[in-house]
Write a structure and sequence with these properties.
Strand content of chain B: over 45%
Radius of gyration of chain A: 14 Å
Structural class of chain A: mainly beta
Oligomer: heterodimer
Strand content of chain A: over 45%
Shape of chain B: globular
Largest interface: A-B, 24 and 25 residues
Helix content of chain B: under 10%
Distance between the termini of chain B: 37 Å
Order of helices and strands of chain B: EEEEEEEEEE
Largest sheet of chain A: 6 strands, mixed
Number of strands of chain B: 10
Number of strands of chain A: 12
Distance between the termini of chain A: 38 Å
Number of helices of chain A: 0
Shape of chain A: globular
Radius of gyration of chain B: 14 Å
Largest sheet of chain B: 6 strands, mixed
Helix content of chain A: under 10%
Order of helices and strands of chain A: EEEEEEEEEEEE
């Protein structure tokens, strides 16, 4: 079974609107972390936001927020007030085990976001 | 401060040759990871090093792949007898594990390997 599922291969959003990128995960660990990364066409992987499995509040970082629904095993990324520079591939990833374990990430297949002017 | 650096940025090699890819992590980061990104397979974990512990090699696809990390810093990924299916972008990342600190991984720009 896929550990990280991103069901939207491509998404379009109008500039200045909000967009939600979906991510569901599968793990039997109680302690885990969820990450979102952005990969522009230049190829670099840019860390955006992190949510721990025991965090009660949804994570926020500027225009990025993570809609964490633990019972549904979903960790959707919300980008508010989209900008043209947000056009990129977005990856959801999971680290199984506690934060202190610093284990490897398992990535989803990604969502290509295009922001329209 | 300086981010993760990788060299070379591009490498073209003939099938059957050996290649070495280098990663210089962020100074002070204790953990170092290698991933590869190819069109058909997405991002795959290869190997990771954490401090002085034995590396986790569980993602290496074959015994042609090996990696070492010298002095807890620079790492080299070696692919022996390269095959065309080894063509991919090889990404290195590092993270800092300390109490109360996050473990987000910071990625280098990658090495694009093409095996002809």
């Amino acid at each position: 079974a896929q550990k990280i599922t991103q069901t939207q291969p491509g998404m379009f959003v109008q500039e200045k609107e909000a967009v939600t990128l979906d991510c569901t995960y599968d793990t039997s660990d109680q302690s885990y972390g969820l990450f979102w990364y952005k990969q522009p066409s230049s190829g670099e992987m840019i860390f955006l936001i992190y949510q721990g499995s025991y965090d009660e509040q949804n994570a926020t970082e500027g225009r990025y927020s993570l809609n964490f629904q633990k019972a549904r095993k979903s960790a959707n990324l919300v980008i508010s007030a989209s900008q043209l520079g947000d056009s990129a591939m977005y990856f959801c990833a999971m680290r199984e085990g506690p934060r202190s374990s610093a284990r490897q990430l398992t990535f989803g297949s990604g969502t290509q976001l295009t922001v329209l002017p | 401060g300086a981010g993760v650096s990788q060299s070379p940025s591009n490498k073209v090699t003939e099938k059957g040759k050996d290649v070495e890819l280098r990663c210089d992590p962020i100074s002070g980061h204790t953990a170092l990871y290698w991933y590869r990104q190819s069109l058909g397979q997405g991002l795959e974990f290869l190997i990771y090093f954490q401090g002085n512990s034995a590396p986790d090699k569980s993602g290496l696809p074959s015994d042609r792949f090996s990696a070492e990390r010298t002095g807890g810093s620079v790492s080299t990924l070696t692919i022996q007898r390269t095959q065309q299916e080894d063509s991919a972008v090889y990404l290195c990342a590092s993270s800092f594990r300390a109490p109360g600190q996050g473990d987000e991984q910071y990625f280098g720009p990658g090495t694009r390997l093409t095996v002809t």
